[in-house]
Amino acid sequence: MTLARLDFDPSGFANLMERCTHEPTWLRELRSEAWQRFEQMPWPNRRDEEWMRTDIRLFNLKKYHWSPETSVAASSLPLARLDVGVELAGRIATIDGITVLSELEDSVQGQGVFFGTLQQALIAHPAMVQRHLFRSAFDASVDRFAALHQAMCTGGTVLYVPRNVSVALPFHIQTVLSDGGSDLSHLLIVLEDGASATVLYESCGTHVDGDGWHNGAMELVIGDRAKLSFVNLQDWGNKTWHFAHQKAIVGQDAQLQWTLGALGGRLAKVNQHVELRGRGAHCQVNGTMFTQDQQHLSYHTLQHHMAPQTTSDFLYKTALQDQSHTVWRGMIRVDKVAQRTDGYQRNDNLLLSNTSRADSIPGLEIEADDVRCTHGSTSGRVDEEQVFYCLNRGFTRQEAIRAIVTGFFQQIFDRIELESVREALGIAIATRVRQYE
Amino acid sequence: MSETLEIIDLFVEVEGKPILRGVTLTIRRGETHALMGPNGSGKSTLGLVLMGHPKYTVTSGDILLNGQSILEASPDERARAGLFLAFQRPVAIPGVKMADFLRHAATNVRNPERKEGEDLMPMKEFRQELRAKMAQLKMDPDFARRYVNDGFSGGEMKRAEILQLAMLQPKFAILDETDSGLDADAVRLASQSIAEIGGAKMGLLIITHHDKLLEHNPPQYTHVIMGGRIVETGGRELADELHRNGYQRIRDEHPEAAAMNDTNTKPEAVTA
What we know:
The complex is a heterodimer.
Chain A: E1 6-7, H1 10-19, H2 25-40, E2 65-66, E3 90-95, E4 98-104, H3 106-109, E5 114-117, H4 118-124, H5 126-132, H6 144-152, E6 156-161, E7 171-177, E8 181-183, E9 186-191, E10 196-205, E11 211-222, E12 227-235, E13 239-250, E14 255-262, E15 267-276, E16 282-291, E17 296-305, E18 311-320, E19 325-334, E20 342-351, E21 357-366, E22 372-381, H7 384-392, H8 397-413, H9 419-432
Helix pairs in contact in A: 2-6, 4-5, 7-8, 8-9
Chain B: E1 4-14, E2 17-28, E3 32-36, H1 43-50, E4 56-65, E5 68-69, H2 75-80, E6 83-86, E7 93-97, H3 98-110, H4 123-136, E8 147-148, H5 154-168, E9 172-176, H6 184-196, E10 203-207, E11 221-226, E12 229-234, H7 236-245, H8 248-253, H9 255-271
Parallel strand pairs in B: 3-10, 3-11, 6-9, 9-10
Antiparallel strand pairs in B: 1-2, 1-4, 4-5, 7-8, 11-12
Helix pairs in contact in B: 5-6
């Protein structure tokens, strides 16, 4: 029997709730609450500070549907990039939010690690999921996309690492959108106190030109003394709309390294939010963006120091070509109790064409008085004297620009430990550089 | 027939302002020429225009490499044809490691027909050669892992240029004040290095104020450029004389060129 596809409207929601009768009551209630919010809220518009540079008037929700079955076979998944030559602890692949592949090494499972779908997690770890899902690092009231995500979340992936368990090998998650597909899936990562893990998460379309709609969320919960290394490579098809709420909470003396590559999509609006909740929590964020054609990528970061002696280090580097446009809006917020914190944020933009545009808006909100916070941003064209120097040593113009652009990102690559990630980002960036005259 | 670089009655402008006014000079491979002249005489312009810097416009005259005009050739084509300029002020390329940069450069210069995307020269072979050249120049091996000219001292920059000269082994090299900003010992080392890496096999055009750079690379010819023209050519003894006595005698003998030179330097002094 073929199941009907669902629209993102009242009848679609009612239909989804009928299909989800197996879900626990608390989750059904969260869905209903969020649906009410969704119905009451307006779409974000350009009067909102966060959206004033990001125009979504052409986004048409009616065009998208969710189907509980996918027509794309697991065997035809696009090639993943972050796991090349990497031995993995586990692997999951989803297409349009539907899990088509799920593997976990027995030895890792034997340590009490859970890595699987949200539906499986609700059975295997009901209390843990109830404690965190949509609660720990997500807020459906932020905007209409967040509300709809919680109301009609179509599934997701959960990684749970118990207390003091260290998993040396990375986990790999590949999220794929079919052409015209929708994905409202959720990622929940919970590291209990003293646990450590590495997660390689990459998303792409089945087609480079693929249309689609991704309205996702990530909750990263990092317990005291825990350590998460998280890599997120976004390379959606170039007609895809990407909305995401990504948030991490970092416990006492815990560490988060979050590396992000943003390459794809027609329009992306992403909120990346890190809460340093425990004393001594540390977070490093490495952001790389490379845009082209008419792409619009809008990233809004918040590094929120909520406890004393917390440190954050956000570095975003962006290269732009053609008529593309990026927005980076970064905020360091330091609560009154968060004395002796050290917050850093920086955004550098390299414009490869006259018609690209980078808006960079760093900000500080500091209530504590004994802190060190620094921020800055730069934007500029490729220096023709650098190009001439390379030409003079036999580089062609394109090779010269490619070398200069790759060099621009090197500061970020230098901070990434995993070779496969450096390679994947390096190749993705180098192959993007166009021929310029 | 020996290989030649011929500059024929070359007139060059930058932003409509004439800088070179009829420079003629022939360098044969294996010869060393010193080019000397006061500030604003057009020395550096000549180096940059030989390499095809886009800021400079050749309004008449020609540049021939082995009899073929290279005026229409792009800077990278000139580099692959065997020309090299050691910059007076090399720019930094942050994030690009010296070794990676040089491997790419050496591959392109040695295989001028290489298409983009084709393999670079084998890593092992390249490393061996680079290590040997660096040892010869008494350079710290760490140098290869640093980013091109990024945070280099004046002396390190000049040594990096000589290392590149050593690796690329051009037919003709223009050394633009490879001694500027160096102390006397460093200049002597640079001079010795240029000789050791086989400078004598190339055609060298050494732009300098300093006779020390010429110590190990004695020029067969010394040219004095003033007001955008070569006003006098002599042997090694001319370089010695200019170093000892300055340009007053030349100025007196060529008042028109000296006046031209002064009008060239004045606006620069104002904008500097």
